[in-house]
Design a protein that fits this description.
- The complex is a heterodimer.
- By secondary structure, chain A is an alpha+beta fold.
- Chain A has two domains: about 5-65, Arc Repressor Mutant, subunit A; about 75-160, Glutaredoxin.
- Chain A has helices at about 5-15, 25-35, 40-50, 55-65, 85-90, 90-100, 145-160; strands at about 75-80, 115-120, 130-135, 135-140.
- Chain B has helices at about 25-30, 80-95, 110-120, 155-165, 200-205, 215-220, 225-235, and strands at about 5-10, 15-20, 55, 60-65, 75, 135, 145, 170, 180, 210.
- Chain B has seven helices and ten strands.
- Chain B has a five-stranded mixed sheet with strand order 2-1-5-3-4, sandwiched between helices. In chain B, strands 6-7-10 form a three-stranded antiparallel sheet. In chain B, strands 8-9 form a two-stranded antiparallel ribbon.
- In chain B, about 35% of the residues are buried.
- Chain B is about 25% helix and about 15% strand.
- Chain B has two domains: about 5-80, Ubiquitin-like (UB roll) (Roll), CATH 3.10.20; about 85-235, Alpha-Beta Plaits (2-Layer Sandwich).
- The interface between A and B is medium-sized, with 11 and 16 residues.
Chain lengths: ~160, ~240
């Protein structure tokens, strides 16, 4: 993963911006995730080496916050809000429907790596519950049918592009 | 160093101690015993087990004695019916969180959690138990970790970091998924930073980390940390 592309330079720049300070670990992890899209063990080892921190501590911090992805996410990311309001309004059923329709599990991706399904805590749009975000576009008052239609549309667009 | 003596009252007894000491250490100087689990002399206080909660007059809040610095004029109560109930509750939640079955545990009779539980007369757990299924790692030559017995006191993590200085152990995730890990969640045999110093097994208050084939009586030696810290002071 850490090839000689400019991503490595970008990471170095993030570290330099924070003066290689151990206390800036969280900001650096944020920056690294922005550059690479996810944090795998190799990258975490690299960061722990550059910051002179124990690998276990860096791994502990990265796993503590659910915002960090430790596995490569799919091309399209669906994030379901598991806040109280969304939960009451039936986000669980929508998630189960997505899982069955696209054969994936929450927290994971489809086999072809096209789609990932994640869950998150309240996104602060409770008035529009249940909320589900598809590639950072939030769909409020979501229903099973509508959500699945949206996802199929996005996946379909890819196909037409490649043809 | 500023060594203004601090005067405070613990359970009605006048105590004089130096600035910067905690309620727990101050109580110890006059022989008042406050129950603890995650606290270990020589390690940084963690304040995680909440067993050492004490009442301080003038506020409704309870304070962890191990991590609260003393202040002049403080009036501390370490034993009261309210605290007794709280401590019983803490012990029950600890027991309910993972799978603690004394009769099949290697640390039976040498377990700090069991000792405290007996002392507070906790013979039932009034919470639904999690019966969580956590991983056991016995890949190391002689050290074994059974995470089902872990109470997440982080004594091992702190001893590994502060005393041995390798920080092989840490915690992953948060909430009910928290677990002790070696390096980046590797198997213990693959954790290259581990020096096999056994300190984690020595300080573990329960039977979560132990030495395979060794009598737990010989393994457990939490006082060794305070001893090492004391001796290292002479080096400076």
């Amino acid at each position: 993963m850490l090839k000689d592309d400019n991503r490595r330079e970008m990471l170095e720049k993030v570290l330099k911006d924070h003066n290689y300070q151990k206390s800036a670990l969280l900001e650096i992890l944020h920056g690294a995730q922005e550059i690479y899209g996810f944090l795998d063990k190799e990258l975490l080892t690299e960061i722990s080496g550059l910051l002179n921190l124990p690998p276990s501590q860096v791994y502990g911090v990265a796993t503590f916050y659910s915002f960090f992805n430790l596995r490569k996410p799919g091309e399209h990311i669906i994030t379901a809000c598991l806040g109280t309001a969304c939960y009451v309004k039936g986000i669980e059923q929508i998630m189960t429907a997505i899982e069955e329709e696209f054969h994936l599990k929450r927290g994971g991706s489809t086999k072809d790596g096209k789609l990932s399904l994640f869950q998150t805590r309240c996104i602060g749009a409770c008035a529009m519950a249940p909320n589900i975000s598809i590639d950072d576009v939030i769909i409020g008052k979501a229903t099973k049918e509508e959500t699945i239609k949206h996802i199929k549309q996005i996946l379909g667009e890819d196909k037409t592009e490649t043809i | 160093m500023n060594t203004h003596p601090m005067k405070l009252k613990i359970d009605g007894v006048d105590v004089e101690c130096s600035e910067g000491s905690t309620i727990l250490t101050a109580a110890k100087t006059v022989g008042i015993n406050i129950p603890t689990l995650c606290y270990l002399e020589g390690l940084t206080p963690y304040g995680g087990c909440r067993l050492c909660l004490v009442e301080v007059s003038g506020t409704n809040k309870l304070f962890p004695a191990c991590a609260t610095p003393v202040a002049s004029g403080m009036e501390v109560t370490t034993q009261s019916p309210k605290l007794h109930e709280y401590r019983k509750m803490v012990l029950q939640t600890l027991l309910a969180e993972r799978t603690h079955i004394c009769s099949v545990c290697i640390a039976n009779d040498h377990c700090e959690l069991q000792t405290q539980t007996n002392q507070y007369g906790v013979d039932h757990v009034f919470y639904e138990r999690n019966w969580s299924c956590n991983e056991i790692d016995s890949t190391h030559d002689f050290l074994v970790i059974d995470r089902n017995r872990c109470i997440l006191c982080t004594r091992c993590v702190r001893a590994c970091d502060e005393i041995e200085g390798v920080h092989t152990l840490d915690l992953k995730f948060h909430g009910k998924n928290t677990d002790v890990i070696m390096d980046q969640d590797e198997l213990w045999s693959k954790a290259c930073s581990c020096t096999s110093c056994r300190k984690c097994a020595k300080v573990c208050p329960v039977g979560a980390i132990y030495v395979e084939g060794e009598n737990i009586e010989y393994t457990k030696d939490p006082q060794v940390i305070a001893f090492i810290v004391e001796r290292r002071k002479c080096l400076k």
